[in-house]
Amino acid sequence: MENGVDKMRCPWCMGFQQYIDYHDEEWGVPVYEDNIHFEFLVLESAQAGLSWATILKKREGYRKAFADFDYKIVADFPESYLTELLSNPDIIRNKLKINAAVNNAKRFMEVQSQFGSFTDYIWDFVDGKVIDNALPNMKNAPATSQESDKLAKDMKKRGFKFLGSTTLYAHMQATGLVNDHLTSCFRYEEVKLLAK
């Protein structure tokens, strides 16, 4: 097994070390910091139509291109820089997705000013508690939920782009609003202990 350790993992992460590390260290860990939420929103909106593995491989490119995911800087990206990004091979060169990241940075700050933090806003959709789906296998894993539907509807109303219910459910999984590690996965119990 990877790293010489015989551990049961969610099967989707097998393939390359970066994916395994992401699963073992980040995925499903409850996030209470706005900057990390913004990073995942940028990456997940870029993923639309692509695999998460593709985005993970470009994550460092995104970090450099998007000012270490500083939403205040991203919100003020000049048009000339956005044009430059279209020729950057280290990110997904899609004009709509790049523009969406800038738009979403502005909307993100509007949410912060209304709710105090984006964290407070998004955790309210799960009543401040991690949803534990206790999944026995991948075929039981949902792609959306009532909560992600409500979140997507609300965020769309607020002007966010490229963040539908499926994308936002993936965000909720990644940032630990939902624990969708399989019950057989070594991270399932570990992640459960991290919830506030």
From TrEMBL:
UniProt-listed Pfam families: Adenine_glyco
Domain of life (superkingdom): Bacteria
The protein, known as: DNA-3-methyladenine glycosylase I
Organism: Belliella kenyensis
